[in-house]
Amino acid sequence: MDKYLEMIRIRFLMMLAYRTNYYTGILIYSINIGAYYFLWSAIYGEKDAIEGMSVIQMSTYVAVAWMARAFYFNNIDREMAAEIKEGKVAVELIRPYNYLGMKTMQGLGEGVFRLFFFSVPGMVIVSFIFPLQFSADLTTWLFFAVSILLSFFINTQINLLTGITTFFLFNNTGLIRAKRVVIDLFSGLLIPISFFPNWAQDILKYLPFQGISYVPSMIFTNSFSNNEAIQAIILQGVWVIILVIPIQILWVIAKKQLIIQGG
Amino acid sequence: MFYIRIFFQYVAQYMKTRMQYRADLFVEIFSDLLFQAVNLIFILVVFGHTNLLGGWTRDEIIFIYGFFLVPYALFSSFFNIWDFNERYIVKGELDRILTRPIHSLFQIVLERMELESLFGAVTGIAVMFYAGNSLGLKLSWADPFLFLLFVLGGMLVYGGIFIMIACISFWADARTSIMPMMYNIGNYGRYPVDIYNSVIRFVLTWVLPFAFVGVYPAAFFLGKEEWFLYSFLTPVIGIVFFGISILIWNSGVKRYRGAGN
Amino acid sequence: MKDAITVRNLKKEFKAYSSRSGLKGAFRDLLTRNYKIVPAVNDISFNVKQGEMVGYIGENGAGKSTTIKMLTGILTPTSGGVIVNGMNPHRDREKFVSTIGVVFGQRSQLWWDIAVQESFRLLKKVYKVSDEQYESHMAHVIKTLDIEPLLDKPVRKLSLGQRMRCELAAALIHNPPLLFLDEPTIGLDVLVKLRIREFLKEINKKYNTTILLTTHDLTDIEALCERVVMLDDGKVIYDGALKSLKEKWGEGKEIEFQFLEEVELADLNKITASSEVKWEKDEKKAIFTAVVEDDDELISLLIAKVVAALKIKDINIKETSTEEIIRNIYDRGIS
Ligand SMILES: Nc1ncnc2c1ncn2[C@@H]1O[C@H](COP(=O)(O)OP(=O)(O)OP(=O)(O)O)[C@@H](O)[C@H]1O
Ligand SMILES: [Mg+2]
Question: Among B77, B203, C56, C266, which one has the highest count of C-beta atoms within 10 angstroms of its own C-beta?
């Protein structure tokens, strides 16, 4: 366990070294949030509520969705692709740890860093500029905390899956990019899932993506009742468990391939 | 003249290498298409809940998006220098560039071009025709020429901004993530700027003039006369921003410190 | 003859950032960072004449590459003047670089993904070389460097020695009158090294090409350069003929004796008491070394004395190698 904690710490220090990222990053995320805020204000126009969400809930949704993205988002799929192509993975495999676990911990180190240096101050700044609504209810915060941790795991697992495909595809930068685009849309970052037409919602229900952004954001904005929140979190947890299966299968096949081809 | 010849030399070279990896090419074009589709889906879903967006109809918004795709495609084909800092500064590839008798920025443009992105222009024009058709827009003889002029202006705006951001690497030695995020901001030129508050509108018009890549020039073809002045400013802003970016680049290269071995 | 390179009081300073240690240090770095100004090249001056081959040597980090980068227009000097081929390298960069060729041994100048000959063809256009010029000149270069069979391979698939020969050919496409080579023989085997040296000598003779060369392999310098410029800590500490460097700092000659009988150092000292000589003994091999001034008279006198007194198994007269001289200078500095 020690070595995994150490990995989190090292990532944390590495992120600190790239300090200019955070001065500019917060500013630019704020602009991003701002633009969506205005877009949604224009969409709402005179309406009080769409799909049961008020304008204020909507702007809070946008803000928290983006700031949570700073936490769960990472590039470990691209890093894996690079490491696999450069043949470094073979070296990683003989080290005394689980490669995928290590990658996850690196992502977590990065995420924790961004949570404290990016998301939290960013959220404070954004709340001065735009009218947001924070819940006074402790259970909401508790649910939210559990939920974004789970969204981190779902997103990271999907990244691991995409990263492993590098073993089988000659070049997967296109795939990685496509995955990112799909996640931004289907996770509910750009539009809450409840805004989609019903048939689309029915399909999305059976996909893991809404666990990444939609669920924690809906919890944060109090758009879910307690019951709905608990159900959604359980569903997130189920997805975390389900996703372990394809990762392990692909990983075993990939390792076999690595041995045969010599990386 | 020399530069044009060199340009085609590089294009020929590029084609040769790309054709070796045709599968990559398709995946790349496909993921571009996917990205464009996601943005269209966003517009469609949003208009499932409202009829007007700050006074603009669905088809008008789609038309603006279609227009935006064309200068954006040109931009991403030739000014794809988002990894300038890592590749040229940190790894010191600029050393090589600087020992060759062609303007350094031009060489980088040549080396980094990604012609497959031009495919986006086709999508863009198709989207414009679809939207223009449902809006009943008419094409006059001058339109194609103005379209070309505005598209080039928009490309220069985009190119100018990204070159300026790349130039930061000459002064600051830390890696910055401005570049990828700027792609996000660039997207706001796609929506009518009158839905934003006046500060953002000002920024998108004069500071980071992304509005000149989408809504302003597109407004001309949509016949929105109150925006015509801005539409015709497009090439001017493009030339001004691009010109400034070249000046900054030239003085930045003087400060290049090389990569320690 | 006109000077190919003129360097006056050239200086280049770098800001070196240092990061504080530990988590707390990293947080402080977030706000302010420590840096100090390091002079990499500190007030150097020298000239190189057209047609000269000059070896530019010095320890790691002495500032050799930095100088070359300023001479080739890659870096701007902090202060001082550089005139190369009659131009200011940085200001007139685009015009200037067509008159020079550059090879950085540590870094490829060729395009990684494309075949070598495609690179050549592109460079030919870039340097505006006519077909006739190219044919007559490059055919020869390709033959001498023996890279014909490599031409259709992409650069990334070449071995180091193969790549380096191609790099050299690429730097010569426009047949420049001045060639900068920064560690061109790093990591190469003896045969490739020899071939490259022969080739450089040849173009120097044929086209009167000026060559400035940095290397850590002093045999390169001995084979190619009459003149060396030695750099230490950003300062020129020696500039002159390689020969006089040897004469000045070569510590005389060493004569090694092995004897058939048991001999003590004291005996030898007694025998040669009248000469200026220092005796050393290698206990294990029973080799006695006499260190004397490099003077033929003195040496033969000494040998005569020893031979007259003792039975000899083997004698060996050794000159101090350039390597040793340079090592001594690096160790002790010039005093
Ligand atoms: N881009 C840079 N930024 C900061 N310091 C640098 C940079 N380039 C070089 N230096 C420093 O300048 C000094 C001289 O470096 P230079 O590369 O010129 O040495 P060198 O003589 O070529 O050494 P070597 O034999 O190892 O190649 C070194 O102390 C180095 O750390
Ligand atoms: Mg060096």
Answer: C56
B17 has a chain C CB within 8 A of its CB = yes
Structural domain contains residue A163: yes
For chain A, the average pLDDT equals: 87
Pairing of strands C178-182, C100-104: parallel
Averaged pLDDT score across all residues of chain B: 90
Show which residues on chain A lie within 8 Å of chain B, measured between beta carbons. 17-21, 24-25, 28-29, 31-32, 34-35, 38-39, 41-45, 47, 50-51, 170-171, 173-175, 177-178, 181-182, 184-185, 190-191, 195-197
The size of the A-B interface in CB pairs under 8 A is 103
Topology given in CATH for the domain delimited by C252-319: Alpha-Beta Plaits (3.30.70)
Integer Cα distance of B121 and B67 in angstroms: 9
Q: Residue A208 sits in which domain range? A: 2-257
- The residue to mutate among C56, C66, C78, having the most atoms of ligand 1 within 8 angstroms of its beta carbon, is C66
CB-CB under 8 Å, A195 with B45: yes
pLDDT above 70 coverage of chain B, percent: 96
Q: Do C109 and B99 touch (CB under 8 A)?
A: yes
CB distance from B54 to chain C under 8 Å? no
Q: Is the pLDDT of residue A263 over 60?
A: no
Task: Give me the residue spans of the domains in chain C.
Answer: 3-247, 252-319
**Which residues make Cβ contacts (< 8 Å) with residue C91, sequence separation at least 6?**
none
pLDDT at A219: 95
Cβ(B223)–Cβ(B234) below 8 Å: no
Q: Give the residue, by CA position, lying nearest to ligand 1 atom 11.
A: C40
Whose tokens are 């902090």? That residue is C78
Given a contact cutoff of 8 angstroms between Cβ atoms, the answer to whether B157 and B238 are in contact is yes
**Structural contact between residues C184 and C215, judged by C-beta atoms closer than 8 angstroms:** yes
Please tell me if residue C130 touches chain B, with a CB cutoff of 8 Å. no
Nearest ligand 1 atom, CA C234: 14
Residue B5 has pLDDT above 50, yes or no: yes
Q: Can you read off the two tokens belonging to residue A171? A: 């070049």
Q: Are C90 and C10 in contact (CB under 8 A)?
A: no
Instruction: Report the top-level CATH class of C3-247.
Output: alpha beta
In total, the C-beta contacts within 8 angstroms joining chain B to chain C are: 63
Q: Tell me the two tokens of residue B116.
A: 């497959």
Q: Is any Cβ of chain B less than 8 angstroms from the Cβ of C128?
A: yes
Query: For residues A249 and B29, what is the distance between their CA atoms, to the nearest angstrom?
Result: 30
pLDDT tens, position by position, B183-204: 777 877 888 988 888 888 898 8
Render pLDDT for C270-313 as a digit per residue (tens, 0 to 9). 888 777 788 888 777 778 888 787 777 888 888 888 888 888 88
Q: Which residue of A has its CA nearest to C29?
A: A17
What's the number of domains chain A is made of? 1
How are beta strands C287-292 and C278-282 bridged, if at all? antiparallel
Q: Quick one: which ligand is closest to C216's CA?
A: 1
CA C3 to each of CA A197, C175, C177, C214: distance values in angstroms, whole numbers, following the listed order: 78, 18, 12, 19
pLDDT at position A246, please? Answer: 95
Compute the nearest-CA separation of A3 from chain C (Å).
17
Assigned domain for A262 exists: no
Q: In this predicted model, which residue has the larger pLDDT, B34 or C290? A: B34
Q: Which ligand is nearest to the CA of B90?
A: 1
Q: Is A9 in the C-facing interface, judged by CB distances under 8 Å?
A: yes
Q: Taking CB atoms and an 8 Å limit, are B50 and A43 in contact across chains? A: yes
How far off is chain A from B242, nearest CA to CA, in Å?
22
| Global confidence as pTM | 0.83
pLDDT score, position C209: 95
Does ipTM surpass 0.90 in this model?
no
